[in-house]
Amino acid sequence: MKIQKLCLSCNKELKGRSDKKFCDQYCKSAYHYKLSQEQAPKFFNQVDNQLKLNRKILKEYNKAGKATVRTEIIIDLGFDPNFFTHYWKNQKGDVYLFVYEYGFLTKKENGRKKFILILWQEYMNHKKFKQ
Fold first, then answer.
1. 98-124: pLDDT as tens digits
2. CA angle 95, 116, 82 (to 5 degrees)
């Protein structure tokens, strides 16, 4: 008695090899994509997504190359200052955190927390690149 095997994606009857699980590449791809969507996001994806969001927000608020913005404005948009790619320390000892080419420094002015936003500059390469 032969057992009929069905495609794991579309439930069509499978023909061919006995260990076959999918009727074609489309069904195989669709099955694995659906499976990945059902699983909790992986740590790498969560970090990567946050870095992309942080960069997008910094880019939006720093069109001129240097800007100041109240922290709550960009935090409310989903910006998380704990996610950055590298840092740079200036001669005054201020440490700028960067998300790729967009940097930010936390400052307190008049009792309010603000971010000073900058762009990575060529002269910053002369100091040893920090990660």
1. 999 999 999 998 899 999 999 999 888
2. 60
